[in-house]
Structures are given as structure tokens and as C-alpha cells.
Amino acid sequence: MGHLHPDLLQRLHAAVGDAGLVSDSQAKAPYETDWLKKWTGRSSIVVRPADTAQTAAVMRICHETHTPVVTQGGNTGMSGGATPDGSGAQVVLSTVRMNAIRALDPLNDTLTCEAGVLLANIQAAAQAADRFFPLSLGAEGSCTIGGNLATNAGGIAVLRYGNTRELALGLEVVLPDGRVWDGLRALRKDNAGYDLRDLFIGSEGTLGVITAAVLKLHPRPVARATAWVGARAIDALVGLLAQLRAACGERLVAFEMMSAESLALILAHVTDVRPPLAGAHAFHALIELADTQGDGLAALLEGGLGDALEQGTVQDVALSVSGAQTQSFWKIREGIAQAQMRAGKAVKHDIALPISAIAAFAHEAEAALRAAQPDVRIINFGHLGDGNLHYNVLLPLDTTPEVLAASTAQFNRIVHDIVAAANGSISAEHGVGQLRRDELRHYKSEVEFDLMMRIKQSLDPNQIMNPGKLI
Ligand code: FAD
Ligand code: 2HG
Ligand code: ZN
Questions:
Q1: Which residue range forms the structural domain that includes residue 87?
Q2: Cβ atoms within 10 A of the Cβ of 158, count?
Q3: pTM
Q4: Is 129 found in the same domain as 59?
Q5: Of 298, 323, 348, which one is at a domain's C-terminal end?
Q6: Residue that terminates a domain, selected from 73, 94, 115
Q7: CA nearest neighbour of 174 among 467, 425, 464
Q8: Residue nearest to atom 21 of ligand 1 (CA)
Q9: Domain count, the chain
Q10: In a domain, 457, yes or no
Q11: Dist. CA 468–CA 132, nearest whole Å
Q12: pLDDT one-digit tens code per residue, 194-237
């Protein structure tokens, strides 16, 4: 074990009791490896505070003893942000016991809950009150709202509702020294000084522990229309997106894209999925409209896609005719993370671009990657509707760590240079974590990096919050 303060474990025990500590190595193991099984570390202990007061007590102790803390929610993150390092000196602070929904205010359209509540439970609570919480992603059954806020998670409905940041009104945060910042305000206008809330959103556990949040609810959509389309090129899908936005406005909720190679991977590695279209297409899109009124959605989508078929923008369309068919389309889309895990080792790129730059990016990146490694397997898919591509490169399962590291460095430079030249971002929705920390340093301007360092230094002078991640 690393250098632990002699009183640490005893003081933590006094703060959270037996129920709040996990010290047995077997019981700690799930907290020490990430969902992708890509990072493994060793914690000194796992602390599971029951509430904000216990979290504050834990942070006071860690502040006084200079003990590093890794905050963890559902542990579904894809950038290694919630995994401790190998020193055995870091405490994992798990939020799983802070899982109460504190209030739902139907007149204000807000829900207040603790950080460890599962995203799916928030969606269900909103629905039970005839409201809608729009954040939706493949891990929604196991990720927490605290993790969503800490990574500013995106998902499949950003096009219509924005990222997690746009869905949060207030936060409660335990600071690195154990003080509590109560910013749990349920306001849609609040300009009383600097926006501290937005500083903590997306800070990946490097500035404080988010313990609770006020979330924005929306009217519940009662109708939806879903289609799967096939196209010859990604350029066509970009054009289709613009056409559908113009025709459907706010009713266009999801526009997800995948290449033929991505679809083939899913069909090969996920059970109970069938190809949605009969023929072969270079690119596919899953498109969904939703509305709070029942009438005319299917006709609107059919009309828009009919025009696109006539103009030759798309080659084939399957309009969903049942809830079961809609589910089967989404099962294909949500199977991609699992399929990549089963098929190989993915070098992941989570990039954002202006939508108008996506087609050129895809052509240039593919040509550059193939020039570097002719047989490269590009798994290009993602949230085209908001400009976020998961432009992954898949290596065989038996790739050695050395080859993986060398290829990752090579692919990162190729892909991220093109992204940077287009004024895009190398980190769209999964967070920087440990995966992209050095890449962030490489691409941030001196000024931007300096500002980030000053913020980090002033909030976390002892450098105990998630060291080695993000910055
Ligand atoms: P964790 O993995 O536990 O932590 C993630 C980061 O947040 C870490 O840096 C951690 O230190 C920090 N953190 C966690 N809780 C807190 C807190 N209370 N206070 C401060 N810091 C905290 N992400 C998307 O954005 N869009 C997707 O479409 C998407 N799809 C996914 C599909 C699958 C199948 C999987 C496995 C993951 C997917 N993800 C996606 C990634 C992941 O689910 C999200 O990043 C999610 O927001 C992480 O939540 P979590 O509770 O699991 O956080
Ligand atoms: C998705 O959009 C997730 O399916 C996972 O963000 C992306 O596996 C990935 O790279
Ligand atoms: Zn995604």
C-alpha cells in the first residue's frame, strides 16, 4: 500500500461507520476496474458516505491528511476518470448510497435529487409525475446523475434538449476542504456573480464532489415516429439532417449515425438483432421524432424521408410500424459499445465538429489512417445530430499492450490533428479522464490551459481531487 496517514482509516470509520467502508480486497475490486476493463488500480479504501454531511466529513479528513480522492458514481465512464491509480494510496469515494430523490416540483418543472441516483430512476420519477427528463444514454440503467453532471454527459437527445449542463439548474458540492457549497437553486435566471455551477459541471471530480442537483424537467412526449435509413455516403446524411431539421423543427429528437462496418460489428456480436434494411449501404441513420401532441408525426417523417428518397439523398428507408420495431432499432444502436468490447480493442475518439465539417473530416481521416495502416478497421458512428462522432479504430483482441500504446499514439495524432484544424474538440461527451489527459495538454492553448490550472489550484490547493485525471 502507498503512503497512508496513520489515522486515516480510523478517522474515516468514525465519519461513516461500518456501512460506509469497504476494505476487503475482493469487495473493493469492482471499484478498482472500469466498465471497459481498460484501467485497473488499487484503492486504500472505498468510502460510501450516506449523505452530504458524511461526504463533507470525509473530505475534511482527506484534506487534513493530504489524501487523494477519486469520486465514483456508476463507474460506467469511458475515459478512466473514476479508476484509482496503482499506488494504493487513493481513496475511492462512491456516491451509490446517496440515492434519494428529495423533491419534485411540478409547477416549477424541477426535480431535486442526490448525486448517486441512477439516471433511469430519475427518468422514471419524472414519468410518474407525467413529466420528462430527456437525458438518455446506453448506460442509463447503471450511471448516476452525479457522473452525468461530472462528465457533462451527452447521449442521444442532445440535438433537441442539450447536454447534461443544459438540464441542470442548481448543484450542491462538497469542496476539497470539506466545506459545502449550497447552490441548490431552482432558478432559470440567476446572474448573481460568477457561474460556479457551470465550473463544476464537466470537472470530472477534479474540483469537488457533487452531492445533489436540481434538474430541469420537460413536458412528456406522447408520440414518436422512428425510422432507419441507408445512404451511400456520410455527406448525404449530413444533408438529410439539415432537411429534417427544417421540416420537423423541435420535433427532431435523435439523429444517430453508423457506418456499414459498425453495423456489421453489431450484427456479429450482439444477440437478437437483425439488419433493418435488406440491401447494403455505406452509412445508416436512426432517426426519431417526438411530440407532446399525438397527431401527424409519422406522416411528417414519412413525407421528409419520401422526399429524400426521391431526390436520391437516401437509398432505402424503414419506418417503424410498432413499438417492438422501434425497440429493435434502438437495440442495434445501443449494442455498439458492447460489440466493440467483444470484437477487439478500440482506440476511442470522442470528437465534436461543426456539423458542416463532418463529411470532410470523415474523408480526410479515413485517407490519413489508411495511409498509415492500410488494413485499419474504422468504427465510425455517433450522434451526428449534434456533431459528435465516436471515430474509433478497432484492433484485434490479442493486440499486445505495446502495440496498443504505439497505435493509440499514432491514431490520436492523425485524428486529433484533423479535428483541431477544423476547430473541433477532442473531448465531446465521455470526459478527458486519464485517456485524453495528455492530448488535452497537447491541444489546449497556453492561455486556456493556464486559466484551467489557476482554477484547479485555487479550488484544490492540496491537489487531492482525482489527481492524474483531466489536467
Ligand atoms: P463514473 O464512471 O463513476 O465517473 C465518471 C467521472 O465523473 C469520473 O471522473 C468521476 O470521478 C466523476 N464523478 C462521478 N460522480 C461524481 C460526483 N458525484 N461528483 C464529482 N465527480 C464525479 N456517455 C455519454 O455522454 N453519452 C453516451 O451516449 C454514452 N453511452 C454510453 C453507453 C455505454 C454502454 C456505457 C458503458 C457508457 C456510456 N457513456 C456515455 C459513458 C458514461 O455512461 C457517462 O460518462 C456517464 O455520465 C458516467 O456516469 P457514472 O455515474 O457511471 O460516472
Ligand atoms: C455511444 O454513443 C457511447 O454509444 C459509446 O457514447 C461510444 O463506444 C463508444 O465509443
Ligand atoms: Zn456517445
A1: 8-94
A2: 25
A3: 0.98
A4: no
A5: 323
A6: 94
A7: 464
A8: 205
A9: 4
A10: no
A11: 37
A12: 999 999 999 999 999 999 999 999 999 999 999 999 999 999 99
